[in-house]
Amino acid sequence: MNRMTTMNGPVNGSVNGPVSGPVNGSVNGAVSGPARAGRGHQHWEQGIAHVHKRDWVGAARAFRRAVRAAPADALYWINLANAYRHAGDHGRALVAVERALALDAAHPLALRLQGEALAALHRYAEAVAAFERLEAGGTREPDAMLQHGAMLQALRRPKESIDILMQAAAIEPAMMQLHAMMATAFRDMAMQNEAIECLKTVLALDPGNLQAMAHLSYEKRHVCDWADLDADVARLEQALATTPAGMARLSSAFSLLSLPIDPALQLAAARAEALASTVGARELPALSAAERAVRADTVSHRPRIGMLSYDFHEHPVAQLIVEMVERIDRRRFEVVLYSTGRDDGSAIRQRLVAAADGFVDLRGTSDAQAAERIRADGIDILVDLQGHTRGHRNAVLARRPAPLQVAYLGYPGSSGAPYIDYLIGDPLVTPVQLAHLYSEKLAQMPVTFQPNGRWRPIPDAAAPMSRAEAGLPEKSEAGFVLCAFNHTYKILPEAFDVWCSVMRETPGSVLWLKETNGQLHDNVRREAELRGVSGERIVFAKAVSYAEHFSRLALADLFVDTWPYNAHTTAADALWAGVPVVTLYGNGFASRVAASVLNAAGLAELAQQSVEDYRLAILALMRDPELLAGYREHLVVRRQELPLFDCELYTHEFETLISRMWERWVAGQPPEHLLAR
Q1: Is residue 390's pLDDT more than 60?
Q2: Which tens digit of pLDDT belongs to each residue from 322-358?
Q3: Other C-beta atoms within 10 Å of 454: how many?
Q4: Could you tell me if 425 and 374 lie in one domain?
Q5: Which CATH number fits the domain that encloses residue 600?
């Protein structure tokens, strides 16, 4: 379900001072230029005085007077745009810089500022065009080219991004951020080995870069390169332990969830990353007593729920949530969806648009504008479906556009954010005895936090995919199929040890893995050989259509899970296909999801608490066909009635939980743990 956040997002430029003449490169202060006179110049000088005091609001006020006095002077407009940019008003910055470009269409600094303003407004395609015009005019500044590359990555054009970044590297090869961004682009092209080399370069340039450490480990695990895993974990734990509390630092919290790292340190990483989202974010004014009274009086019976996500398209989050959105009782709630991601024209996107009371596309808006829109819409409870994953808009949430803000579904851990009030879990994924591992108050669903429904394709019993078509041994060959379709970054040596151990005891068995990239085959087969299992017994499943996936998935005998990051949507997929899941759970949210899913499917006994119990449970099912058949029959025969797939019941329970949050707010009570009833 989840995606790790990109190594580098849109990059702030370095236009940091007033501008008075032609500029080459970045601007860090006043630049001498052609002499000017008159009232416009006087106001410009006043603006410079404000700039030197870093008073950007005052500077903008003075530069506005300058452009009124001399509206045909492009440099006054550029200075106004620069002041607006630093004041965080990117919309006005764009208007000002476009006035400058109307006077001087090729001015390099104006083009640079235009690209930056468009980037801040998340208008990525237009930003790319601005940077292209800048470079076509002969200005090739590595930091501007870095922003150009970032915009191409935001548009999912990684190959073009690499081309631009390579050109920038030829000019300034020691630019650390440049290599970090190339790593992200290579990852997007499933070129993990190249991404790994880029990250090694980042660490050579900046050995203490926590984000690069985390990403390097993450990319290596994508190709099952475990050679230095223990050293990587130790280095990350040391870096996290020595990061001062309250320090805003990009830490790649998502990538840490799949490592055996102390949950308290994972919380520290999330706190540091959440704090980074507040930099430059000014919180909206708190609701006045009068506004609170009006809300409590007029909408307490029908609060407005807003859901914020980058993933309202063909994505597991959208698939999981769509039926619930359709079922929410409109006599009790309004639901508005705020989309920050692409419109892929998919059926799931169209269903979400039709299901919501309002569907707002926030692309092309700054974080401040997005927050103001949510506030203006009167959203009472803002549900974030993203957390620390790629495409998040945490800076919107940091502005507190809604009285209550809730983390849900998209990120399996604590946000660490002071601006998030509740985290929706359940008694298994977020037990109250582990509340100290979360910055939010825990809000528990009664059975499982994961919404499902009966939307998945039913494996085609009339014309199922054959084992041969899937590259698997036939049953006649005693070919027991252990399926581990989690992303390969979740696979750690301890789990692989168990899988190889049970395979040694069951001749003819195979391990079926998801082919997440084409660079992992040799590493996996070598690791199997080192554990006494022929590499030929590892089968890789290539990407297929969603319907074919379920027909193929049903061929597996048993799904074996990973830890500390379990199967999430993947576990529910396996159970829907009639394949039992054996899991091992720990203390973190991500390590307890499969146990929650199994409990909702009536198979809680398949969730184990120790590695040895996990191994024995797998062996028992491999050796006892009748026991395995009983579990499969339970799943297939009762598929339509299991609580895991009962979205009507789930939606009612979700409504009840949201109502409990809202009732506390209306009563003037602070958030508190809301345990399952």
Answers
A1: yes
A2: 999 999 999 999 999 999 999 999 999 999 999 999 9
A3: 14
A4: yes
A5: 3.40.50.2000
